Amino acid sequence: MSKTVLLVEDDNALNDAFTIMLTKNGYQVSSAFDGQQALDLLKTVQPDIILLDLLMPVLGGKEFLQQFNNAGHVPIIVFSNLDSKSEIQEVMDLGASRYMLKAWATPTELVRVIEDALAATPTPA
Amino acid sequence: MDIFRRFWSKKQSLQDLHVMAIVVALVLVLLGSLASYLSAFTTQRQHTQEYNDFKQQQLALTTEHINQKIADYEQILLAAASVSNVKGGQGLTRADWQTFYHSSQVQARAPKALAIGYVQHVNADALPDYIAQRQAEGFADFAITPSGERASYSPITFIEPFDVVNQLAFGFDMQTDPARSAAMAAARNSGTFALTSSVVLRQDMDKSNPPKSILLYYPLYEGPHDLLADRQANITGYVYMAFRLADIMSVRAEALQKVGAGYVLTDITVKPQLMVQSTTPRSGKTGDAVQKDLQVVDRRWQLQQFSTPSQQGWITPSGLFISGCLISVLLGGFVYLLIDRRLTYLRHLHDAEIQDTRNELLALASHQLRTPASGVKQYLGMLQAGYFGDLEPEQHSVITKAATANDRQLEIIDQLLYVAKADAGQLNLQQTEFDFAAVIKNATVNLTAAAKAKQLNIKLQGRKQLPLVGDERLLAMVAENLISNAVKYSYPNASVWIKLQGRVDHVELTVRDEGVGIAPEDHGKLFQKFSRIHNDLSVSEGGSGLGLYLARVLTEAHGGTLEVASSADKGALFTLRLPKTSAKEQNVAQLTD
Q1: Number of domains into which chain A is organized
Q2: Cβ within 8 Å, pair A18-B375
Q3: Looking at the partner chain, which of A21, A84, A85 has a beta carbon nearest the beta carbon of B387?
Q4: Is A14 part of a structural domain of the chain?
Q5: In this structure, what CATH number is given to the domain that contains residue A102?
Q6: Which CATH class is domain B88-308?
Q7: N or C of chain A: less Cβ packing under 10 Å?
């Protein structure tokens, strides 16, 4: 069964590009354009992994992490272009599993990170 | 005129601000001086006005004094005359005169008058009786002076106070003196008061410098005296008062001296005859005097008032002007400092604000550019990875070129962001210990493709491992920039030497190429923001002009140095030196040593 990815990214082009890329790699993609949309989607969708952008309007990545009750321990990969150590740490403390820089990531690298994260997570019984 | 344009356009240089401050201060000084001058001028005029008023006032006082005195004396003489007329004819006795003198309080009412007397008109044939009368009063040796036979005599018959001084005048025939005679004649003929010109009294005749005096006469008649002929025929005598001019003027003389003034009294009835003057020395300025012509009884007097230079104290008009100018200059200087400081401060604030805005703009723009550039990278990446099918060689080639250009976009955007951060002082170094050799190796590997394209021989020498404390990412950027430049500015088939060495307290990275080089005169510009030096390869290779600027900023942020040695067409040697530990840690090390 294909895994579901919840993609939370505010930029149209990037959201589209990632969606295409993930779909091409066999993933089911639910996409949201801000944190609030993501929270709403999570009421009905149970993704296997969440790709979360940090800088978004309405509700940003950090605020999303603060409000999201990750009872199911869904791996969350935060990607952004912020590269301050303290912010990375903050985000990790809020429940992110991994962090990656958006700008320079190639599709291949991104897919690899996702697969690594999914592999590290025990599948729910 | 540029300065005016700049003034309105708010694009003033700091020097312009200084000039503006000076101009304002000068204007203030000018206005202040003008105000001082005006106030000095007004004060001067006011002083002059007040002074003139004062002089006139004093003159009036003196005039009034004279008139009052004369009026008083006239009153007394009228009283004396009425006493005589009551007695009738020449029936007035010495006792009468004394009674009159005391009961009328002449002494009290006319303290400055020397004498009040009665002159009897004695015809030659009545002389013996007259003498006998005097002798009967007790004056055994009485004689009319000067002696001699005359048609008629006008001796002083009674005189009070009858003291030693006045006794000198007793028996003096006033007719023998032309001035007195003239006055008596005038009084007789007019039927009223007459004044002599200034004379010397009998009482003063023995003095070496006798004071001037005047006598005031009032005629006495027996019988009708309305017509001139009657008056001449029926004159029986005179009552008179004598006073020394200095005495009656003494009060005014004192008062005038107190205000630094003096007076001159001249009889100008016939021709000018100086009567009396105050002893205050005359001031040099003749234009200072004021004068007034008075009608005193039947004579014309001229009163002149002059003054000594007045003491005005320091509030002179010139003093006012000078002190006003001084204050203006002080004020101007103070205002200049105030304005200048304020303007410079505001300018610095403004410049800082502009700089901040510029930095924010730069950061914002870069962020906004980065996102779509990232988007492009993703799409191109997917194409390259074959997500949309295998690519024809041509397609692959084109997409690769696009990807390269896109990478360059992202690189420049990164540089801009770092530059903005560095300018805003927001460069946060994330200090970790890492292997610098590995970083350099990595950078070299990343540039392999570009090097290969030019068939360059990259020689990596020196340490294979070199631990360093610093921000790995930022130092990687520096290394990459240096190596990338070496590759960019090398001619094909050349070599590039990259050598990493470790010294006692610092590491040294040298990057040498045999390419276009940099002329010594361009060395200064090399590390400046947005500066690109034109050479054979600069146009084709392209660049943001930020690479070396950033490299140096990042190096210096780590406490290191970045130097260049080069000449045109002789290649370039860049030397990067970094302390082995961060500055903070270095300090700690020093403390614990």
Answers
A1: 1
A2: no
A3: A21
A4: yes
A5: 3.40.50.2300
A6: alpha beta
A7: C
CA distance linking residue B447 with residue B246, whole number of Å: 125
> For residue B540, what are the CA distances in angstroms to B170, B310, B416?
141, 94, 21
Average pLDDT over residues B305-330: 75
Tell me if B381 and A107 make a contact (CB, 8 A cut-off): yes
CB contact under 8 A, B378 and A84: no
Chain B neighbors of A26, CB-CB under 8 A? none
Whole-angstrom distance, CA of residue B379 vs CA of residue B377: 6
What is the pTM assigned to this prediction?
A: 0.52
Query: Residue B513, Cβ neighbours under 10 Å: how many?
Result: 27
Nearest to B235 by CA among B194, B289, B290, B294: B194
User: What domain range includes position A67?
Assistant: 4-120
The answer to whether the CB atoms of B381 and A20 lie below 8 A apart is no
Which candidate, B233, B191, B234, places its Cα nearest to that of B90? B234
Contact B410 A103 (CB under 8 A): yes
Q: Where are the domains of chain B?
A: 88-308, 350-426, 428-592
**Which residue out of B368, B376, B378, B474 would a mutagenesis test of the A interface target, given it has the greatest number of A Cβ atoms within 10 Å?**
B378
ipTM of the complex: 0.86
Q: Does A13 touch chain B (CB under 8 A)?
A: yes
What's the 3-state SS for chain A? CCCEEEEECCCHHHHHHHHHHHHHCCCEEEEECCHHHHHHHCCCCCCCEEEEECCCCCCCHHHHHHHCCCCCCCCEEEEECCCCHHHHHHHHHCCCCEEEECCCCCHHHHHHHHHHHHHHCCCCC
Looking at domain B428-592, what is its CATH homologous superfamily?
Answer: Histidine kinase-like ATPase, C-terminal domain (3.30.565.10)
Chain B residue nearest residue A88, CA to CA: B430
Cα of A125 to nearest chain B Cα, Å: 33
Q: Is residue A49 part of a domain?
A: yes
Among chain A residues, the shortest Cα distance to B388 is held by: A24
Mutate to test the interface with A, among B368, B371, B432 (most CBs of A within 10 A): B371
- Asked whether B83 and B106 are in contact (CB, 8 A), the reply is no
Beta-carbon neighbour count of residue B503 at 10 Å?
A: 9
Please give the mean pLDDT across all residues of chain B. Answer: 86
Q: Let me know: does B166 contact B114? Beta carbons within 8 Å.
A: yes
The answer to whether residue A125 is domain-embedded is no
- The whole-number pLDDT of residue B313 equals 54
- Residue B424 backbone phi and psi in degrees, to 5: -85, 0
Most confident of B14-18, B439-443, B566-570: B439-443
Residues 75-114, chain A, touching B (beta carbon < 8 A): 81, 83-85, 102-104, 106-108
Block means of pLDDT (10 residues each) for chain A, 125 residues, are 90 91 93 94 94 90 91 88 74 88 82 89 59
Nearest to B179 by CA among B57, B99, B267: B267
Segment B328-352 mean pLDDT: 86
Classify residue A69: in a domain, yes or no: yes
Judge contact between B155 and B121, C-beta under 8 A: no
- Identify the three-state secondary structure at position B191: coil
